[in-house]
Amino acid sequence: MKHPASKWLLAIGALFGVLAVLSGSMGSHMLRDQLEAFNSTANFILASNYLFYHAGGLLFTGLLLERLERRGFLYVGIFFIVGSFLFCGSLFTYSLTGLRGVTAVAPIGGMNLILGWLTLVVTCVRLPSSKKR
């Protein structure tokens, strides 16, 4: 591996994928009654989906970092990881406990996810053009 952080982005992306599939499965089967008790099934599904989307984003970002070695891709990964923990974590916690206060960090997590995607845009735009002659 060229960049030492790329393996961690790939590993965390894969782990997020595992957690997303597990949470989706558990939410539709084992936790259904608990989620309905707090009327939070939609929040749980949203958190599971966002975790899955950003698992793919982390895998993609890890591959880009490995191949192109641009620091911006590392920042994208950090934004995705922090954002997923805050956004998805707060929604999962609220969905399972009913503690509304934990959702206060969801917008901070969402902002990190947005910053991750914007950083990906900027980093890609700044890549040098490859002209074949």
Characterise the protein shown here.
- The protein has five helices and no strands.
- Helix 1 runs antiparallel to helix 3, helix 3 packs antiparallel against helix 4 and helix 4 packs antiparallel against helix 5.
- It is an all-alpha fold and 133 residues long.
- It has helices spanning 6-28, 32-37, 41-68, 71-97, 106-125.
- The chain is elongated and about 60 Å long.
Shape: elongated
Low-confidence stretches: none
Largest sheet: none
Total number of beta strands: 0
Strand share of the residues? under 5%
Number of helices: 5
Rg over alpha carbons: 17 Å
Content-based structural category: mainly alpha
Q: Give the overall pLDDT as a whole number.
A: 90
H/E series, N to C?
HHHHH
Helix content bin: over 70%
Q: Between the first and last Cα atoms, what is the distance in angstroms?
A: 29 Å
Quick recap:
The chain has helices at 6-28, 32-37, 41-68, 71-97, 106-125. By secondary structure, it is mostly helical. It is elongated.
Give the secondary structure arrangement, pairings included.
Blueprint: H1 6-28, H2 32-37, H3 41-68, H4 71-97, H5 106-125
Which features characterize this protein?
133 residues; mainly alpha; 0% strand
